[in-house]
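> example.struct
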């Protein structure tokens, strides 16, 4: 199967998998959601690879712009890890000069700022907290004390 045909078919599938409404809590991580999230990571990789100097012509000529609108919409309607994967894709597109304006036109930057930024900041804060506990004796003691008090042991 030629790359162009495969990419076009995957883009059609991605557009058809666009959520019609907000994903319910019990549907989070369902097959359709996972499909959207996994395709988003694939397209994010393709978008990033397009920007490299040695990208093959088939990859350079691939137009991902029709995916901006469905994926910005999906970013607003998805939950959890799938939403994060879609956010990665929209971020990669926003970093690309080729797709930045289309992301801007679909209000994708605002959605990223409202949805993805707080998630990334929380992940960074948690990583910093863990690093501090791993590398600082006083922080480790304070964390142990905090956990004991949460469990009602103190």
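> example.seq
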């Amino acid at each position: 199967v030629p790359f162009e045909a495969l990419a076009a078919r995957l883009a059609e599938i991605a557009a058809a998998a666009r959520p019609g409404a907000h994903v319910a809590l019990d549907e989070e991580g369902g097959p359709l959601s996972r499909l959207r999230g996994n395709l988003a990571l694939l397209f994010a990789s393709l978008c990033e690879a397009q920007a490299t100097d040695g990208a093959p012509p088939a990859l350079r000529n691939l137009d991902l712009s029709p995916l901006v609108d469905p994926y910005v919409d999906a970013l607003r309607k998805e939950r959890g890890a799938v939403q994060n994967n879609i956010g990665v894709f929209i971020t990669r597109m926003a970093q690309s000069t080729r797709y930045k304006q289309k992301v801007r036109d679909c209000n994708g930057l605002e959605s990223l700022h409202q949805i993805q930024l707080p998630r990334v900041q929380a992940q960074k804060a948690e990583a910093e907290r863990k690093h501090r506990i791993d590398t600082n004796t006083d922080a480790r003691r304070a964390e142990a004390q905090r956990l004991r008090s949460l469990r009602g042991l103190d």
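> remarks
The mean pLDDT is 91.
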